[in-house]
Amino acid sequence: MFGHCCFIFIIYQIIVLVECSLVPILKTVNVLDRSLKFGHPAIPFQVITEDGYILQLFRLPGEKKPPVLLMHGLSDTADTWLVRGNGSLAITLANAGYDVWLGNCRGNRYSRRHVYLDPDNDPLFWEFSFHEHAVYDLPAIIDTILDETGSKKLNAIGHSQGNTIFYILGSIRPEYNEKVNLMIALAPVCYLHNIKPPLYTLFTFIPLLNDFLKKVNINELFGTEKIPGKILKALCSIPYVGYTICIENILFTLLGADPEEFDRDVFKIVNTFFPSSTSRKNLDHFGQIFKSRRFERYDYGVIGNKAMYNSSTPPSYDLKKVVMRIALIVGLNDNISSLKDIDLLSNQLPNMVNYTVSPRKTFNHMDDTWGKNMAVYLFPYIFDLLKEYS
Ligand SMILES: *[C@@H]1O[C@H](CO)[C@@H](O)[C@H](O)[C@H]1NC(C)=O
Ligand SMILES: *[C@@H]1O[C@H](CO)[C@@H](O)[C@H](O)[C@H]1NC(C)=O
Ligand SMILES: *[C@@H]1O[C@H](CO)[C@@H](O)[C@H](O)[C@H]1NC(C)=O
Ligand SMILES: *[C@@H]1O[C@H](CO)[C@@H](O)[C@H](O)[C@H]1NC(C)=O
């Protein structure tokens, strides 16, 4: 027992030391600094959802209408759209005169606030999944943008989970279909039948992991506000070895490898803000979709489902109701968003206007936001779509 404690104590001390020694080098990237640096100082907005979460939204003002909303993926933040500086999507759109808005989902470091729940002490704060991002966060964000701009509609670009939530929004709150002129889905995520190994294997462990975390009362995942997140960040920050462990061995293995597009220097930036917090329940919901092979609401078990949905199984999201215009942009080396799963999705979306496969053979799950040459293999398609459907 004593040995065990000692060991943990020593590890903890090492982490504290590593952290302290790295803090001066690793100043966390943030939207306000970076947007200013690249010529489009962002204006922050506070958005309060119907259920009391306080979300941070940023605007890089521009003339063009309708405005463009960018929504990040799982455990990500608005920073992701600025990683590449003048070669990033947010700045490229702003340079072209677009009115750019960057959203943040509840739980991440910009939106870890609530009018009365305390994220550090109230487990109820973390009682959400992507369902709540879709049904509460998105409507609050969209309505704020439309109010501020006087526009009737907006364009949206979502990465990964950032587009999943638009399908749910369109099906559960169909009135929002009319507020979206065009949704461009980068690395689309809906069905998860065909994710590649070893990610596939990891997904089979999510229910077990969830049960364990629930028992030990861990409801917040990945973020650096908590010790496990600090350990991960410290590990990834070790010069040379950090990139090898976190990127070459973990990220590339899980999400597809594309080393040319994701070099050590840009990793240093990404590692300051990614991964950010989300809830255990969110990860669990993805695990359920994978296991049940159905795109459906959170499964609370037979008794919980009866109370929640008046049915023993969770209702499926009805994709027929998602009548907003949707364009899909897909990478061939994306080991989460496989072509087979995206084909399933595309066959069910009633108003899919475009399905583009990027010509880059090694295009992986993260090249949509962090890639070095997005201006070559991604942005032209986005700009064509925005022009075509404006
Ligand atoms: C970004 O700026 C750098 C240096 O000013 C320049 O070399 C590069 O071409 C720019 N990239 C884009 C996409 O504009
Ligand atoms: C990711 O997917 C690509 C394309 O299907 C495949 O060649 C590669 O082996 C996969 N990576 C892993 C680690 O499974
Ligand atoms: C619950 O479902 C049953 C059978 O499907 C139906 O008869 C009943 O009216 C429903 N109750 C509520 C409160 O919707
Ligand atoms: C839509 O998709 C096709 C490829 O499937 C592409 O050739 C076309 O240019 C795309 N863009 C627009 C704006 O139609």
Task: Summarize the SSE layout with pairings.
Elements lengths: L1 H21 L8 H7 L5 E6 L5 E7 L3 E8 L17 H7 L2 E5 L27 H20 L4 E6 L1 H12 L7 E7 L12 H6 L1 H10 L4 E2 L5 H11 L3 H15 L8 H10 L4 E2 H13 L8 H9 L16 E5 L8 H10 L3 E6 L9 H4 L3 H4 L1 H10 L2
Parallel strand pairs: 3-4, 3-5, 5-6, 6-9, 9-10
Antiparallel strand pairs: 1-2, 2-4, 7-8
Bound molecules: 2-acetamido-2-deoxy-beta-D-glucopyranose (4 copies).
Tags for this entry?
390 residues; alpha/beta; Rossmann fold; eight-stranded mixed β-sheet; two-stranded antiparallel sheet; 16 helices; globular; binds 2-acetamido-2-deoxy-beta-D-glucopyranose; Lipase_euk; hydrolase activity, acting on ester bonds
Gist of the model:
The chain is an alpha/beta fold and about 400 residues long.
CATH fold-level name: Rossmann fold
What is the second-level CATH architecture? 3-Layer(aba) Sandwich
Helix content: 40-55%
Order of helices and strands: HHEEEHEHEHEHHEHHHEHHEHEHHH
End-to-end gap: 66 Å
Give a short account of the largest sheet: 8 strands, mixed
Total helical elements:
16
Strand order of the largest sheet: 1-2-4-3-5-6-9-10
Q: If you average the pLDDT, what whole number results?
A: 93
Could you say which structural class the secondary elements and strand pairing correspond to?
alpha/beta
What ligands can be seen in this structure?
2-acetamido-2-deoxy-beta-D-glucopyranose
Q: Quick one: CATH superfamily? A: Alpha/Beta hydrolase fold, catalytic domain
Oligomer: single chain
The top level CATH class name: Alpha Beta
Can you tell me the number of structural domains? Answer: 1
Please state roughly what percent of the residues sit in beta strands, choosing from under 5%, 5-15%, 15-25%, 25-35%, 35-45% or over 45%: 5-15%
Shape: globular
InterPro entries: AB_hydrolase_1, AB_hydrolase_fold, Lipase_euk
Protein name: Lipase
GO biological process, one term: lipid catabolic process
Pfam family, one: Abhydrolase_1
